[in-house]
Structure formats: C-alpha cells, structure tokens
Amino acid sequence: MSISVNRSVCINPVQTSCTTVGGLHPDTLVMLADLRKTCGGKITITGGSEAGHKSHGPGLTPVDLSLSDSTLEECIRGFPAGKDIGFCRKTYQKFGYTFCDEIGVRHWHVYK
User: Fold this and answer.
1) 112 close to 101: Cβ distance less than 8 angstroms
2) Shortest CA distance to 31 belongs to which of 2, 58, 63?
3) Is the CB of residue 98 less than 8 Å from the CB of residue 27?
4) Of the residues 6, 32, 45, 52, which has the fewest C-beta atoms closer than 10 A?
C-alpha cells in the first residue's frame, strides 16, 4: 500500500490544477505514515500545499484525502468521534489530527 497524489504534481507554486506535497508539515507526513500502517488501503492525497486552498499551504498541517478507498474509509470511521464542526458531516480523531468528512465536494479534510 502506498500514498499517492490524485493529479500531476505542481511545477509552479501558483498552480491550482494539480496537487503538491512538497512543503507539507513534518507532523502531517508522520500522520500519513501512521495512517498507512494503521489502516492499509489506498491513500490518495487530493489537496496538499498547492495554491488555491484557504487552509492549506507550505508548512501548514491540513491535507485532503480521497474518500474513494472503502478500506481506508472504514478504518477512519472506526476512530473515536470528534466534535461537531459546521463544515463536516462527522469528524474523527486519531494521531492528534481531526479527520473531517467535508460537506460539499466529499473528501477527508485532515488537520491538526
């Protein structure tokens, strides 16, 4: 099982039609490795440190993950429930992070 990105890697720091993982916070990299070890399944990063996000960017902890893998989704839904947040259907807590099933374009918005 590996961790992949959904679109080509950004070449230009202002591009928004790609996914960049360069500059992700070191804690986020550790969390992704722990998630891979704990859950298995396919982890696809759909939002990293690329331009165009309000809460993402180099050195920040948020990362977006695809909801397309049922093994990963079932594992995350088995984590302890988190507090209700207006932009999430439901949240879960693990590794010091909140896993938010985001309303709108569905994905896991994961942040510390």
Assistant:
1) no
2) 63
3) no
4) 52
pLDDT at 30 over 80: yes
Residues near 37 by beta carbon (within 8 Å), at least 6 away in sequence: none
Compute the chain's Rg from CA coordinates: 13
Residue 43, CA atoms < 13 Å, CB-side half-sphere: 22
Q: Is the pLDDT of residue 1 over 70?
A: no
What is the DSSP code string of 12-77?
A: STT--SS---TT--HHHHHHHHHHHHHH-S-EEEEESS-TT-SS--TT---EEE-S--HHHHHHHH
Distance of CA 69 to the CA centre of its chain: 13
pLDDT for 50 equals: 79
Beta bridge partners of 45: 5, 65
Q: What is the pTM of this model?
A: 0.90
